[in-house]
Structures
1.
Amino acid sequence: MTRWMVALALASALPGTALAQNAPGAQATPAPADPAREAVAQRVAASLLPAGTYRRVMRDMFPGMMEAMFDGMGGLTGADFGVPDKDGKTFSQAMAESDPAFRERMTIMMRIMGEEMTPLMDAIEPGVRAALGRAFARRFTLPQLSDLETFFTTPTGIAFGQELMAAFMDPDMMKEMAVMTPEMVKIMPKVMQRFIAETAHLPPEKEKLATPGKPKAQ
């Protein structure tokens, strides 16, 4: 469950990257954009995703985001996670009993993840920026892109581009994430029930992958 929460936080920390995998037509080869439009669109994308944005998000904001998400989970019980609930203890109570240093341990882990993910974010950011430019070129006309470029050369436009991604990690946004997280957890049992029912017609999996570091069952 903790790994699932970390994955959710990573998706949330990078707006626009998580949903793209499941968007209709996301895997189809897109039609090339007009070169003139793409040239302007790439400059617009650079204004919205300045170099170093993902580094800033992961290093400075990811740990706080995870803290907010775990705060949102604190009052949930086993029943909310879809597991037998024998004592009605909340997530926070159960974690405190099993590991008194749980919060400090998680805080350290989230800090390490943010720091270690930074080089990866640096590596993927140029590709994301280029893809964003191509997407803009297909979705906006040349006059519209020119208007956007003009806006992003103004002091207000520059400030907007620099702060847009950071705004997703604003304390008010984190509060909303804390509210949303337990609600998302609560629907997971229903999601899994539907998954089991709607994949019942498929042949069974031949073999489960072994857990890293553990030998496969003989």
2.
Amino acid sequence: MKRIVPVTICFICIAQLLSGQLYSDSLSFFQPSAKFNKTRFYTALGFSSATYAGFSYGLYNAWYKDYDQSSFHFFNDWGEWNNMDKAGHVYTAYFQGVLCYKGAKWTGLSDKDAILTGAICGTLFQTTIEVMDGFSTEWGFSLSDFGANAIGIGAFAFQQAHWGEQKFLIKESSTGMSRPDVSVMAVSGNSSMTLRERGNDLFGSSLPERYLKDYNNQTYWVSANVHSLLPKGNSWPSWLNVAMGYGSENLYGGFSNEWESNGAYYEINDLYPRYKQYYLSLDVDLTRIKTDNHFLKSVLSVFNIIKVPAPALEITSQGEVIFHFLKF
């Protein structure tokens, strides 16, 4: 189980936006250039290249170094984690494309070239991970992951080229909650462990680890900007979106809730059945909040990849209907 840490990728695009601090010109540091600016372009290119090299090196040491390597091979992981990881790939590729596009516009590239830059950057980062997977015995090159990446990049590029804006945003939310401290018995023997211990083994014990890795905590959203979809002159607030989300619960293994620990075998599929969650909620498109402050615009663009907490209606694959006063 792997997932790209959004903070790492955000740094690449933030670096592009902030690199203007290395020199002085007539523009505000955070103001996009109306025409091609060589100094900004090469500064951003240098930051992006250095960050990509650091990202690749760090990713290898964090995820792959301790696992055996093999010849390039494929791996079919469709259905693993209720395909929450596929939603994560769509999300990550999408926001990489969006933020790198905005970084390219900051340098003064044309809209067409900026879209191409966003698509190339998103594809490069995601494909690097897939190739590393392909040489790892623990995983393998996943065609479904590659397809999910393409959907994310395509969602960004199509909207920007066709509408000149993002009417449908792809976002994420996560609670970082720990798993319940409930004991489960091994199928054979007298061994037991808690679901919290199992969750810590899978996703980590710290709040940042659980926030970033625990699929039970994550929800992926398609956030639609109603104002831009309605006829011109409508009274719907331009910043208020309607969002549809997807999540899962009771995921204690990739394909099923079965695992081995300290020589004991556990199986809790009946006690804690895996199920899917579908949400309807409100959201805020932070980039449509009107401000003349270019620094604030940059900050809002970065944080716009996160779904704003709001009331939500949940429908589960088990047929339950639940109202959340505030869904994170």
3.
Amino acid sequence: MKRMMTLAALAVGSGVGAQTAMAQQIAVSGSIGTTGGSIEAQTQITPIIQLRGGYNYFEYGVDDTYDDIAYDGDLDLTTWGAFVDFRPFANSFIVSAGAYFGDKGLKLAATPTQNVEIGNQTFTPSQVGTLNAEASLEDTAPFLGIGWDTTFQGSGPGMGFKFIVGAMFTGSPDVSMTATGGTLSNDANFQNQLAIEEQNLQDDINDYEIYPVVQAGLTWSF
């Protein structure tokens, strides 16, 4: 009996030691995808749970038409991210949950060169000047995804591969619109029509509440 208790104690001690060693494993990674270029660090807590966090840089020039007005602008999805990855089968398959943090949005500008309809009325280019629109997203965007991550799955430190697909839940953009440089910039009627145009733009992009996330990259564990 004493020998069995000793063996059991050794087994428990070995398990605790393994968990402690596992918790100290860390890795860094670089990836590219729909969130831009990403740099992350991650650590394994248990055989089925790892924590991951990093920085994503993404700015993209856009040319698009909303409510028959052609805009140029920039989409900015530069964010910080924090995630918990679950390995339900204790292998490389992961289910990931977390969030992206930081200012995210779309900035647009249009300088008409011909008569254009603003709200319910038509105005000349000189009357309009430049239209400036901004669609701001929530600072915190939850994320859910699945993927394949070979980090920590080998017998020791080394290179791994990561591929993740999922969705960033950005919520409905909050749109604001102004006009500058036109002869009617301070005209009450023009401002009323601009408010209608702002709502039209809001309606056009209200359905963009989910942003697809696809990332592929390499990891290195220590």
